[in-house]
Design a protein that fits this description.
This protein is α/β, with parallel strands linked by helices. It has six helices and five strands; from the N terminus they run αβββαβαβααα. The protein has one domain: Ribonuclease H-like superfamily/Ribonuclease H (Nucleotidyltransferase, domain 5), CATH 3.30.420. The relative contact order is 0.21. The model has no long low-confidence stretch (mean pLDDT about 90).
């Protein structure tokens, strides 16, 4: 694992960040609330979270250096078939020749048919070393998106989808530039 990380770090300087497209999945729920808050001195902060049944939505997205994203949501968890649909219907139309699609090592990402769809679009595929969220700017994007979702406190599925769309629109080029830089991607 350490060798793979060192090898990736050495190769980072040769990558054009403008060509990198990072992909990852994350979950959102209708019971999300803020993790921290403030109240007047001596008073308790009160925030309500639903108990019992709540819906889980999986977000599959990409992020580029300019902050653009290509996102799809589904109810429940992802699998190879769902990920392949994302690549075919959402990601491939946004790809340009010579793009480099970077993913983690989730089994659903390594399907030959899915990889062929990306390569047919003229893009390359690269896999991050195992356990390396510090090399993946999309992890920081998910942090911002989830903070905005917690703030929105969407309690219905349709409200959650609207909140996800708003949160993704809040991803700015400055955000993405900072995330890419924090992960060590040098600018050419």
């Amino acid at each position: 694992m350490a060798k793979a990380r060192r090898r990736w770090r050495r190769g980072q300087s040769g990558l054009d960040p403008a060509r990198l497209v990072f992909i990852d999945e994350s979950a959102a729920k209708t019971n999300m609330t803020r993790l921290r808050g403030r109240a007047p001195k001596g008073q308790r902060l009160v925030c309500h979270a639903p108990h019992g049944h709540w819906g889980t939505t999986t977000m599959i997205s990409s992020v580029r250096l300019d902050g653009t994203t290509a996102c799809m949501t589904i109810e429940g968890a992802t699998n190879t078939e769902v990920f392949q649909s994302y690549v075919r219907e959402i990601l491939v139309p946004t790809l340009r020749p010579a793009d480099i699609v970077v993913m983690d090592n989730l089994g659903a990402h390594k399907n030959d048919r899915t990889l062929a769809l990306i390569e047919q679009a003229g893009a390359q595929v690269r896999f991050l070393p195992a356990y390396s969220p510090d090399l993946n700017p999309i992890e920081m994007m998910w942090s911002k998106v989830k903070a905005l979702l917690r703030k929105a406190q969407a309690r219905t599925h349709s409200d959650l989808l609207n909140a996800i769309a708003s949160a993704l629109l809040a991803v700015s080029p400055q955000d993405a530039l900072g995330w890419f830089s924090a992960c060590g991607y040098n600018f050419i």
